[in-house]
Amino acid sequence: MNYIFMVIFCVALALFLFLSLIAYLITSGSSKKISKKDKNIPTAKPKKAKKVFDTNLDNMIAAAADPNLSDSDLQELVKIYVATHKLGSKTSKELDESTKKKLEFVASLASNINASPQTVSFLNKELKKISASYKKEIDAYEQMGLAKRKIKEEQ
What is the pTM for the complete model shown? Predict the structure, then answer.
């Protein structure tokens, strides 16, 4: 009985040492030495500076329509827009001029070729959370923007 216990203990110790050696080799292998040739090559790409957007509504609408912006830039723009511009509560069936202007942002973003469906959907959902009384109008302006986008893509 004592002999079996010693054999099992030795096997377990050998297995533990073997696994420790493998773990050491894996972790030390990731920090390879850089040869003299490779020292001049940068290992990480410099991060692109984030764009800073103006909170002025007209400037935001123009930025949302800018085809030079990437989808990640547009996502940042949407987050800023949602944080700074509220539609308020609906008082009549007709939209006032300030609300129409705010909804133009939705159409402008939806018409941008670089805006992903996820970005447009995110804007739609967030605006509906904030201003539930404007659900139909938000959808209508989004559809107008998507129609403009389709026209742009066909040209």
Answer: 0.66
